[in-house]
Amino acid sequence: FTPTPGARPRSEKAETSGMVLMAAVPVWVGNEEIIGILYGGILLNRNYRLVDYVRDMVFEEKEYKGKPFGTVTIFQWDVRITTNVKEKDGSRAIGTRVSREVYEKVLENGKTWLDRAFVVNSWYISAYEPIYSPTNETIGILYAGVLEDKYVDIRNGIFLRFLAIIFGGIVAVLILSHLLSRGLSKPIKKLVKATDRITRGEIQYILEKEKNYSYIQKLPYLEIQELIRNFNQMAAVLYKRETDLEKANDDLRQINRHYMEILTFVTHEIKNRLGLILGSAYNLSQGVVGTLNEGQKTMVDVLLRNSERLSDMIKNYFDLSRIEKEELKVNKQE
After folding, report:
1. Key word Ribosomal protein present in the record (predicted)?
2. Same domain, residue pair 203 and 314
3. What pTM value is reported for the model?
């Protein structure tokens, strides 16, 4: 036997018997009397024609990243006697043995194994079926499997592309928010400087400087244009101060309402996508698509933890929007 990780210990050191595929047909005299039996068989030990024929017929792809993609094996009890599973050096894994889990389910309990299994040195999505003798005794296992690495790579590729789309969307939202805030803040800063001059009694300076209003037409928002124009009129005509201030406040409330609508829309879209990420991450952590190794579990835990933090942040933005819309009341407590 070749030492095999995960195999069940055996007291024997080697297999001294063989497995034969037998056939028998009667020999007739005419059509009435049987005078004998024609009996023959093929030794399966190290006979690779059958397993290679089945592999070539079922699996079109031979290898993936240097490893056999589809493999077929016949076991005599728990020992590979004919196979196209390869060792690391490229030789056929003759003499290696089946894993303990498969041994217990298939050989001891006579059940079919349909699950991922560690085959010599790689994980395969596999099927193991017991082989019975003419007396209905379990004498071996028939195995077929496909390399798991390919499907893991496909899954990881889809996940990474999905993350890239989400990340790109977040970046686009941040850029848009920056442009919107910049378009609002720049004219507001000019307005603040003008009010500072007015508080210092420099109304005449403001009126002389703002006689040419052509730059106002270049501002990105009609509301801001109107606010600046009204502010200049307020500086020139003080008796209309109360009316002009009320209009300016209305304009600011309209801007804030637009801002909160954009914030609500953006956070809603992010929340929907984040729900998909959280669902996928929970499925991964629960082993829906397969058992994770320690490294994968750590990465999934990091993903879940940060996604939940982002979800809490989005909920706070939703609450802020509801407060602004007076849909949510704040009860101050000491």
Report:
1. no
2. yes
3. 0.48
